[in-house]
Amino acid sequence: MNPLFISGITFLLVLFQNFSDLRNQYEYASKSKKNTENFYELLQKTNGDSPVLMAYKGAAILLKSRFATNKEERKEQFILGVKTVEQAVSKDENNVEIRLVRLSIQEHTPKFLKYKSNIEEDKKKILEGFNKQNVALKEYMHRYIAQSKVFMDSEKSKLK
User: Which residues of 4-33 are buried (b: 16+ CB within 10 A; e: fewer)?
Assistant: First the structure.
């Protein structure tokens, strides 16, 4: 068997067991078209019905839609991405990480797309569930919250 294939499978197994690398990939995905494409391709190669994984797949589709040159394709990708993220939320409504993914998307989506209606709801779930998360997820959430304009300084300072 091809050693590159084996190492790729091993990488994906490790990646999705703890989601830390996936979170890092998501953080960098929005920084460039190439990063977005890499994140999207990585997620297209994965199977599984984990709601968290589904949320990141939706996010990858939404990020990719920004770079579509055809207006109809951009619209279709946006709708598919939103649908995928919303399915993830409905499968695990109390999952703070999924709520953070959706909030991060809605915070940065242009107003004219009208995908901002869950920001306060997600923010509330995130703040309520923050201290119940593992250290790695808390650090990830803290990085996002620190730069977010949705969270007030008083809320940011309470998160340890």
Answer: eeeeeeeebeebbeebeebbebbeebbeee
State the pLDDT at residue 18: 56
CB 88 within 8 A of CB 52: yes
pTM, to two decimals: 0.87
Q: Of 19, 17, 12, nearest to 100 (Cα)?
A: 19
Q: Can you tell me the distance from the alpha carbon of 139 to that of 18, in angstroms, rounded to the nearest whole number?
A: 14
Rounded to whole angstroms, the Cα distance separating 52 from 93 reads: 11
- Positive or negative CA dihedral for 76, 148, 154, 114? negative
pLDDT at position 139 over 50: yes
